[in-house]
Design a protein that fits this description.
nine-stranded mixed β-sheet; alpha/beta; 7 helices
Length: 273
Amino acid sequence: MIQASSMKDQANKAKAGKEKRAVSNKGATRLQKKKSIALTSLPSMLASSIPLWFVQTVFVIGLLAAGGWGLQQVRWGWPVEQVEVEGEFRYWQAQNLAKQLLWVKEQNFFSLDVRQVKYELEQLALIKSAQVKKVWPDTLLVKFKEDIPIAVWNNDALLNPVGEELLLPGSFNQTGLPKLSGPEQKTAQIMRQFQRFQSRLSAVDAVMVSLNMNAVGSWKIELENGWTIRLGRQQLEQRVERLIELLKILPQEKVAVVDLRYGKGAAIQWLPV
């Protein structure tokens, strides 16, 4: 009995020890290290928390702002650097025409108005037309076509083949051009008559140096050989044909004036001997 009681007491003591240790373990808390967050990981953490639509909007606004700045730079900072001149010139020289375009180099390539450039160039003497074109990235190409004067008009202008008045440049060399004169409103008529007369006179190698129609419509011709021809107002074609016959038979170096204002024949004024 004593032995059994002793064994029972030992068993109770062992059980009590286990319960004490269990209570002791239950009340203890193990310390754990806190995890640190690296600064380099912050952007990715923030990015993951920002909505995609917000990122896209900011990106588009940035592009628009950069594009607007770029356009302003292009608009105000892209000058014309070169001017090229093309054409066949008899009276103008290409370098002189280029000088007329120096002001263009102060203009912006994009905002330059080629229509205005064309208009101003076509106001120049003896320029019939100008084609103006921009050539990327910084060149202005101008193709000129000159007007062709074939006569001097009233000593202060020129005429082209259809009788249109042209500006007479101050430095223009008039040598070799016939001089036409008459009422201002008769330019086209006088040009046509000049061309008819000269066409017929060329058959006998006669060259007109002047043609005049006065206020009452009477015509006078001066030839290169020194003859003065009075045609009058009527039967002009027939009288020119008579003149051609006289040029064939008369000693040209002795004649001063041929007056054809008669129905037939002519009155001849000879040079003094």
